[in-house]
Amino acid sequence: MSQARDNVSQALTEVRRLQLRDLGAIEEIERRSYPTPWSRSMFAGELAKPSSICIGVFEGATVTLVGYLIVSRYVDAWHVMNIAVLPEQRRGGIASLLLEELFALTRDDVRRGYTLEVRVSNEGAIALYESAGFERRGVRRGYYTDNREDALIMWKDPPAAAASARA
Question: Does domain 3-166 have CATH number 1.10.3210.10?
Answer without folding.
Answer: no
